Amino acid sequence: MVLGILTGCGGDKEEAETTEAPPAAEATDAADDTQEATDEAADDAEDAAAPAGDIRIALVMSHQTNAFTTEFSNAAVAAGKDLGVEVTVFDGKKDVAQQITQIQSAISQKYDGILVEPVSVEGIKPAVEMANEAGIPIATCIQKMKDQELAKAYIGGDDTAAGELQMRKACEDLGGKGNIAILYGPMGSDAQIIRLAGYEKALEDYPDVEIVFDTTANWVTDEALKVTENWLASGKELNAIVSQNDSMAIGA
After folding, report:
1. 31: which residues sit within 8 A by CB, 6+ positions away?
2. 8 Å CB contact between 144 and 121
3. Exposed, middle or buried: residue 249 (CB in 10 Å: 0-12, 13-18, 19+)?
4. Rg (Cα) of the chain, in Å, rounded?
5. Domain extent listing, the chain
6. Which one, of 128, 210, 140, lies nearest residue 176 by Cα?
7. Of the candidates 105, 109, 114, 159, which has an alpha carbon nearest to the alpha carbon of residue 132?
8. Per-residue exposure over 162-191, b if at least 16 CB sit within 10 Å of its own CB, e if not
9. Rounded to the nearest 5°, which phi and psi values hold at 209?
C-alpha cells in the first residue's frame, strides 16, 4: 500500500527503486524474526507475571466426624482452588497431641499459613507459639483458643450469642417452665465452654426451667443416641433436649 502511494505521487525512477518491496524470501525471514521476537517478549511477560511459587495453607481441623466439619473442609479446599491456593486438610481426631504434631509438621514443611480449629482452648498454645516463632501466620477457625491474641485472626461466629438464642428459644417453647437436658460437645473445647456461657445467660431469665441432665456426646450422633436412651430410661421427666450441634440432635 505504501509503495502504491509513493508511485502514484510521481516520484522518479531512483526513488521508486529505493522503495521497492524486498524479495519474498527476505520478507518471509523478516516476518519470522518479528514473530519470534514477539513470542519471546510475550513469554518474558508471562514469566514475570507468574507467582514465585504456589501458596500452601494447612487447615488443621479438630475432627472430621460429622457433616459440618467435612463440609467446612471441602469448602475451604474448593475456595483455595478458586484463589489459586493449595489447601491441605489435617484431621486432629479430637486429640490435642496429634493436632500439635500436625501444626509442627506444617511448620517444618514451610506452609505459607496455618488455619486451625483447636481441639482444646489451651492445648495448642505451644504449637501456635512455634508457628509465630517460625514467622508463619496462624489463625483459628470455628473455635477460639484461650490466648486468642497469639493467633493472627479468628474466623467464625459468636458462640455465646448462638448459645443464648438457642436456650432462650427452648425456654420460650416450654412456656418458661420445664426440665431440660443438654448435650455438650467435647468438654474443654471452645464451643462447649462458650455456648454453655450463652445457655447460662439465657437461663437467668427463666427461673422455672431446670437443667436435669447434662453430659457430652462429643459431637457424635451415636453417642447422643445412647446418652438420650439412658436419660429416658431414668424415669425422670424430661421436656426438652438442647444440643450443641446438629449431629448430636439427630441422635437425640
Report:
1. none
2. yes
3. middle
4. 33
5. 2-49, 55-155, 159-251
6. 210
7. 114
8. ebbebbbebbeebeeebebbbbbbbebbbb
9. -100, 130
Q: Would you give the end-to-end CA distance of the chain in angstroms?
A: 86
182 CB contacts (<8 Å, ≥6 apart)?
Answer: 196, 199, 211, 213, 214, 215, 241, 242, 243, 244
Asked if CATH classification 3.40.50.150 holds for the domain at 159-251, the reply, yes or no, is: no
Let me know: does 153 contact 185? Beta carbons within 8 Å: no
Cα(190)–Cα(182) distance, rounded to whole angstroms?
A: 16
> What is the third-level CATH fold of 55-155?
Rossmann fold (3.40.50)
- How far is 192 from 96, CA to CA, in rounded Å? 16
Tens-place pLDDT, residues 52-110: 348 999 999 999 988 889 999 999 999 999 999 999 999 999 999 999 999 999 999 99
pTM to 2 decimal places: 0.70
Q: Return d(Cα 142, Cα 146) in angstroms, integer.
A: 14
DSSP notation for 37-63: HHHHHHHHHHHHHS-SS-EEEEEEES-
Intrachain domains 55-155 and 159-251 with the same fold? yes
User: Burial, 60: exposed, middle or buried (Cβ in 10 Å; 0-12, 13-18, 19+)?
Assistant: buried
